[in-house]
């Protein structure tokens, strides 16, 4: 009966919603419990996001379909649970005369398996929503992604450790969760842990206070994959670094995979022991750069599609042109546009976007940020953005860095001291020297003058 009811619902909804939405929202649903006597039905969606969406948009419709079908008012309860087959409920209320083990034991087994899988997930601290399938690739991250996929397929074999670095909000955390999720999908028994470096520091402190280092060590030494995010937070924490050093040695020797992220490349991280830095460098080190325009557009379109928002390419280009620094900023702009559209009950048009992002755009327009100067100049000279903060002194890096400092002084109202800070904590005299040097060179070199002109135009949009 419940199978027919489910088929009836899907058929009815197919007449009301496009096939793509059926696939996205309705197919993943399942009926986990059906109690005809109590007129009660328990339905499940695979995650909280889908559950909220379905309940908000189709909760009433399901109530109506159930009441019509069963000829009485049915109470539908919703919960988050992974899908079995929609047509066969995981739990059916036992009929009188049957023992519960007779009617449900294979189902119970499957529930138990799912509970085990859920607890493995919980222990791994992975976020299921951060996976390769929703990670947009482009020139800025394609090497990092390729390395990440390689490691997810052959952990402990190819690049160990894998060290990913790049500025804020560029997708490092997303990528390493994707590796963990992929590995867990291929091997549900794998012992995986994602940890932010700050949390690791605080776990070391706790282990120290409770004199529980043995347990702490055991919990790390037994991992198959350790994902440690934002390692720059280890700076100056010598006890943490010592513990991590032992864990690192142990895991690498046992061919277990380690993946590390940081805001800069190993040699540039301040306050970390040399023996750790050299180990960070012993596998593969890859940068994630800020996304270029086309990639920012692709990211916006993908995120809009995920949220079921109609978003034209012209609008996406407009937003991407104004939000240059990182993906988190793009997501913020998209959230704002969606909130604005839903609040005013309007569709997303160019005018609406201009209105929604008015403050953000005027800030970006009126005054270019130092971050976007660094990115634009690095792109122009084809060097890494990280070199804007590095101490490297090769001529092909020094000139672009000085150009960026010069433009920062020209196009923002930041002081020499502030600009020095934003270029990897340099002294204000270094900035002053760069500004003077570039203004002099500009008068003599037509090529440099042209470059500055192009950069100026690009930055002012
Ligand atoms: N290429 C991408 N495709 C889709 N989403 C992305 C991409 N890059 C980043 N994001 C999204 O942007 C947001 C910020 O990314 P993430 O947290 O991974 O950045 P991060 O580099 O770890 O930054 P931080 O150094 O601040 O921790 C996340 O919501 C992430 O899902």
From TrEMBL:
Top-rank taxon, per record: Bacteria
Location of the AAA+ ATPase domain: 158-292
Renumbered residue ranges of the record's region Disordered: 85-106
Record key words, sorted: ATP-binding, Cytoplasm, DNA replication, DNA-binding, Lipid-binding, Nucleotide-binding
One Pfam family cited in the UniProt record for this chain: Bac_DnaA
Biased composition range(s): Polar residues: 85-104
UniProt subunit comment: Oligomerizes as a right-handed, spiral filament on DNA at oriC.
HAMAP family: DnaA_bact
Official protein name in the record: Chromosomal replication initiator protein DnaA
């Amino acid at each position: 009966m419940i199978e027919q009811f489910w088929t009836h619902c899907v058929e009815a909804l197919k007449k009301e919603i496009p096939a793509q939405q059926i696939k996205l929202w309705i197919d993943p649903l399942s009926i986990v419990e059906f109690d005809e006597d109590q007129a009660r039905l328990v339905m499940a969606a695979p995650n909280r996001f889908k559950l909220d969406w379905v309940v908000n948009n189709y909760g009433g419709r399901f109530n109506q379909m159930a009441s019509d079908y069963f000829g009485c008012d049915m109470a539908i309860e919703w919960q988050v649970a992974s899908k079995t087959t929609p047509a066969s409920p995981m739990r059916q209320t036992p009929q009188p005369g049957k023992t519960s083990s007779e009617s449900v034991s294979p189902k119970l087994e499957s529930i138990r398996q799912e509970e085990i899988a859920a607890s493995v997930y919980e222990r791994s601290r992975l976020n299921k929503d951060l996976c390769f399938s929703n990670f947009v690739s482009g020139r800025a991250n394609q090497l990092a992604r390729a390395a990440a996929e390689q490691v997810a397929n052959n952990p402990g074999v190819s690049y160990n450790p894998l060290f990913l670095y790049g500025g804020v909000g560029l997708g490092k955390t997303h990528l390493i969760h994707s590796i963990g999720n992929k590995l867990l999908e291929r091997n549900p028994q794998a012992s995986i842990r994602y940890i932010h470096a700050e949390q690791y520091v605080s776990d070391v402190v706790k282990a120290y206070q409770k004199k529980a280092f043995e347990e702490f060590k055991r919990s790390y030494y037994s991992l198959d994959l350790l994902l440690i995010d934002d390692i720059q937070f280890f700076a100056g924490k010598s006890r943490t670094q010592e513990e991590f050093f032992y864990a690192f040695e142990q895991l690498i020797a046992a061919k277990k995979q380690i993946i590390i992220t940081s805001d800069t490349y190993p040699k540039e991280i301040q306050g970390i022991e040399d023996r750790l830095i050299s180990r960070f460098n012993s596998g593969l080190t890859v940068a994630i750069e800020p996304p270029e325009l086309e990639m920012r557009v692709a990211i916006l379109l993908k995120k809009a599609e995920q949220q079921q928002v109609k978003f034209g390419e012209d609008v996406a280009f407009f937003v991407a042109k104004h939000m240059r620094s990182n993906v988190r900023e793009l997501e913020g702009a998209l959230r704002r546009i969606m909130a604005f559209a839903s609040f005013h009950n309007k569709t997303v048009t160019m005018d609406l976007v201009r209105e929604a992002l008015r403050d953000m755009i005027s800030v970006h327009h009126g005054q270019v940020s130092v971050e976007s100067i660094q990115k634009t100049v690095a792109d122009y000279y084809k060097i890494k953005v990280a070199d804007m903060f590095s101490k490297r002194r090769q001529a092909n890096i020094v000139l672009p860095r000085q150009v960026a400092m010069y433009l920062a002084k020209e196009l923002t109202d930041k002081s020499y001291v502030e600009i020095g800070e934003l270029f990897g904590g340099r002294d204000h005299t270094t900035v002053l020297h760069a500004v003077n040097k570039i203004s002099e060179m500009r008068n003599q070199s037509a090529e440099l003058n042209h470059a500055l002109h192009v950069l100026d135009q690009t930055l002012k949009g």
